[in-house]
Design a protein that fits this description.
123 residues; alpha+beta; OB fold (Dihydrolipoamide Acetyltransferase, E2P); 20% helix
């Protein structure tokens, strides 16, 4: 499990872990909890070009369907096949094995810090 304080966040409840020019993206535990038991994910394929702020996938639960937004402009380099096989990883380990996509990018937009995101979800 990744240290949540070292991550960056979006207002749409995605977390972002930056390593060089690659961003690993998932949804937060807050979002996973609000969705309920995740039963299906629809993720973009490697090679897909994505634009920050646009919908790139869906996360379906027993309660609702949530959208996955790309937090940055870039190219999908990997989608998590383990989550395809076992969508419940999004609930059980959202900051670890439940990651969703990896994006190659050239510029990082402003994102929320852990403190800023914590304040957002506390409202």
């Amino acid at each position: 499990m990744t240290d949540q304080t070292s991550l960056q966040y979006t207002a749409e409840h995605e977390w972002v872990l930056v390593s060089g020019d690659t961003a690993t993206v998932g949804i937060t535990a807050y979002a996973a909890d609000k969705l309920g038991d995740v039963v299906y994910v629809d993720l973009p394929t490697a090679g897909s070009v994505v634009s920050g702020g646009t919908v790139v996938g869906e996360i379906e639960s027993t309660k609702s369907v949530g959208e996955l937004f790309a937090p940055i402009d870039g190219t999908i380099i990997e989608s998590n096949s383990a989550v395809d096989a076992d969508p419940s990883l999004v609930n059980s380990d959202p900051f670890g094995a439940g990651w969703l996509i990896k994006v190659s990018f050239t510029a990082l937009p402003p994102l929320l810090s852990y403190a800023d995101y914590s304040a957002l979800v506390a409202e």
